[in-house]
Specification:
The protein has helices spanning 3-11, 24-35, 53-56, 59-68, 80-97, 142-150, 154-164, 169-172, 174-195, 216-219, 245-256, 312-328, 343-347, and strands at 46-49, 72-76, 104-105, 108-115, 118-126, 130-131, 197-201, 222-225, 229-231, 239-241, 260-265, 283-287, 295-301, 336-340. The protein is α+β, with helices and mostly antiparallel strands. It folds into 3 domains: 3-35, no CATH class; 45-76 and 204-347, Trna Endonuclease, Chain: A, domain 1 (3-Layer(aba) Sandwich), CATH 3.40.1350; 80-195, no CATH class.
């Protein structure tokens, strides 16, 4: 869908031919469904961000980059028996705290309205919920459903469900049981992957592929929209391209803090491999805390430090990132990986 049409939908200024005026409501409703989110990026406001060469070529930035540039590979070890036991325990606990409810039906009646503009419906009555008995519910293929959603073997799934002691709940509400069981298994599996991950720093290669070369800052163009750019002076780029209010505030406070020597918003090409997909940390920072010593940090900024408020995959990737940077750490002045919601919280690590 073209941006001019999205803009007209967003501003409610869509103009239709006179022949379709009577069907305007139906047409607009359909177009909204097709358009999805109506956030419009103006291509004219897209800009390329230049390097600040004074920072990029400084000894401090080279020292920072030398501490975080190394790539790693990983392997995962986990006990399959322990995974099955934990999955069963999680399902048991979740369904004990929030039991499966019987499937219920609600009936609605409506009249069909046919006009030149098309077909529309108008609801005329709604019934109360009616609980369904177990014999009325067609049972789906439980093992196939869970195998598709969790990628575990059928044998493992059978053991998990049997050991959970909650298999009888499946008959009460098959859809709800499958959703809960799949989420419990996947959440437990993600945690098992993180608990069993071991990173290894790549050895030196002839083509230099074991590191992220500092020259990538010159070779990989950084672009963004003017609406989410902040002009700065201490960054390796002349502007910070931020993705959230938390990142904008963090950059503003880094600029104001006299102990911060320089920093970089890490580009999208700077990636840490994890079993759940690549992880891109937020910031690399050099701090001159007491006027003499240099401290080096990689900082992950989120609006909250409570893991429950973040998606499981986010939490797992951050944990993998911590393990990666611990693996490449070399010496007492290695870069430290920290999580913080603000520069004030970050400063407690200096």
């Amino acid at each position: 869908m073209l941006d001019p049409l999205r803009k007209a939908l967003k501003e409610d200024t869509l103009v239709l031919p006179e022949a379709f005026t009577s069907a305007r409501k139906s047409i607009v409703t359909l177009l909204h469904k097709l358009a999805g989110k109506l956030d419009i990026k103006d291509a004219n406001k897209r800009d390329t961000v230049k390097l600040r060469r004074g920072v990029y070529l400084s000894d401090d930035f080279k020292a920072l980059w030398d501490r975080i540039k190394h790539r790693t590979t990983y392997r995962v070890q986990f006990d399959n028996e322990l995974l099955i036991s934990r999955c069963a325990s999680t399902i048991r606990q979740v369904l004990t705290d929030a039991p499966v409810t019987r499937a219920r039906l609600r009936f609605r009646t409506a009249t069909v309205l046919i006009s030149q503009g098309g077909v529309d419906t108008k609801q005329t009555a709604t019934s109360n919920f009616v609980s369904m008995t177990e014999g009325d519910i067609p049972l789906p293929d439980l093992l196939t459903e869970l195998q598709d959603r969790t990628q575990l073997t059928r044998r493992s799934i059978v053991r998990i469900l049997t050991e959970s002691g909650k298999l009888d709940d499946f008959k009460l509400n098959p859809a709800q049981f499958i959703d809960v069981a799949a989420e419990c298994i996947n959440r437990t599996k993600r945690q098992a992957l993180v608990d069993g991950i071991k990173y290894r720093r790549l050895g030196q290669t002839a083509d230099g592929s074991e590191i992220y070369a500092q020259e990538l800052f010159e070779q990989a163009e950084l672009t963004g929209y003017l609406t989410n750019m902040l002009e700065v002076t201490k960054s390796v780029h002349e502007k910070v391209v931020y993705q959230s209010d938390t990142e904008r505030s963090f950059a503003e406070d880094l600029e104001k803090n006299t102990a911060v020597k320089l920093y970089a918003k890490l580009p999208a090409w700077f990636k840490v491999p994890t079993p759940l997909g690549n992880y891109n940390p937020d910031w690399a920072v050099v701090v001159n805390a007491d006027g003499t010593d240099r401290l080096y940090f990689v900082v992950e900024t989120k609006s909250t430090l409570f893991d429950d408020a973040l998606r499981d995959a986010e939490v797992a990737k951050i944990a993998c990132g911590r393990e990666h940077f611990a693996t490449i750490a070399d010496g007492a002045d290695a870069a430290k990986f920290v999580r913080a919601t603000s520069v004030d919280a970050f400063s407690k690590h200096w």
